[in-house]
From TrEMBL:
Listed transmembrane segments: 31-54
Record protein name field: Peptidase family M23
Stretches assigned to the M23ase beta-sheet core domain: 228-322
Gene3D superfamilies: Glucose Permease (Domain IIA)
Gene Ontology MF term list: metalloendopeptidase activity
Key words of the record: Coiled coil, Membrane, Transmembrane, Transmembrane helix
CDD domains attached to this UniProt entry: M23_peptidase
Source superkingdom: Bacteria
Organism: Thiohalorhabdus denitrificans
Keyword Coiled coil: yes
Name of one Pfam family that matches: Peptidase_M23
Record InterPro entries: Cell_wall_metabolism_enzyme, Dup_hybrid_motif, M23ase_b-sheet_dom
Coiled coil stretches, renumbered: 63-104
Length: 328
């Protein structure tokens, strides 16, 4: 052993098995002092750590931080409630709009159905072609289908499919447009038919009077021989009004051989009427006249045996029997 290790503590340090040993010796007093110093250092360190690291912050600071965090949470809660309120209002508004839209679609469907029924009745009454004006089925349409679906499928609200409602509105719009087109065409045809009907001779050409000679073959009152009468004769008192039996334009107003004072009116659509043997003519050549308007007065001019009206109706230049046009 080392020389100083008998009365003190020795610490021998060697390097490997062959290295020279290093002797460190210290007394009991030194060892005890070192231990006491180390323990004092550790106690001081623990105290300082407890003061700076383990001691909680001031209560007012904690309260301030807590209040700040609570304020943020409250603000987020208020924002969330506002978002929920807006969402509910939006949803309620959309549901009300959807309900109103559904009711409107139902009303439109009912009106289209009534329009179809009316169209069928008009076609039937007017005697038009059922194939040309077909109000029963939906109109023939075509084209690629495009959906109005949102992400994840069709958009629904309150059990109603927005996509289907949109398609129904589109179908109704197309159906209404089709019906409007048909009704416009139908109205035009009926208007033209009404115009033709109004232009067609119809009525009695004077107040009073009676049919004194018919259309067709008869015995000539002057020669006594068989002859052909192109019109009918309506006897009446001299000076009685002679009235147009349809609207038109005067194409003759004056004397004409055999007719005496004659008024001829072109009614369009191939029809013309002649009023002969008048006492006076009340219209001029080229004048437009209405149905029931006075055009002359009953007389006995021309080849006549007494006061009467010689009425002729011509269609496409050919005389036809006026009796089917006389409304009496």
């Amino acid at each position: 052993m080392a020389r100083n290790c008998k009365e003190s503590y020795c610490l021998v340090l060697t390097r490997g098995s062959t290295g020279r040993p290093l002797h460190v010796s210290f007394s009991r007093t030194t060892l005890f002092g070192g231990i006491v110093s180390f323990l004092s250092f550790m106690a001081a360190f623990a105290y300082l750590a407890s003061q700076f690291l383990l001691t909680p912050p001031d209560a007012s600071t904690l309260k301030k931080k807590y209040e700040q965090r609570l304020a943020r949470v409250e603000a987020e809660r208020v924002d969330l409630q506002e978002d929920i309120k807006r969402f509910r209002e939006t949803r309620e508004g959309m549901e009300a709009a959807m309900q109103a839209l559904g009711q409107q679609i139902g009303t439109m469907q009912a009106r289209v159905t009534r329009l179809d029924s009316l169209g069928e009745q008009v076609v039937k009454v007017a005697g038009l072609d059922d194939g040309e004006f077909d109000f029963a089925p939906d109109p023939a349409v075509g084209g690629p289908e495009e959906t109005l679906e949102g992400q994840g499928g069709p958009v629904k609200l309150g059990g109603q499919d927005l996509t289907e409602l949109a398609r129904e509105v589109e179908r109704l719009s197309e159906r209404i447009a089709n019906r409007q087109g048909q009704m416009e065409l139908l109205r035009g045809m009926i208007d033209r038919r009404n115009v033709r009907q109004q232009m067609r001779p119809d009525g009695w050409p004077t107040d009073g009077g009676w049919l004194s000679s018919h259309f067709g073959r008869r015995i000539d009152p002057f020669s006594g021989n068989p002859s052909y009468h192109d019109g009918v004769d309506i006897a009446n008192k001299e000076g009685a009004e002679v009235k147009a039996i349809a609207p038109g334009v005067v194409t003759w107003a004056g004397d004409r051989y055999g007719y005496g004072k004659l008024v001829e009116i072109d009614h369009g659509n191939g029809y013309r009427t002649r009023y002969g043997h008048n006492q006076e003519v009340a219209v001029e050549l080229g004048e437009s006249v209405e149905k029931g308007q006075q055009v002359a007065s009953v007389g006995n001019t021309g080849r006549s045996t007494g006061p009467h009206i010689h009425l002729e109706v011509l269609r496409e230049g050919k005389a036809i029997d006026p009796r089917k046009f006389l409304d009496r």
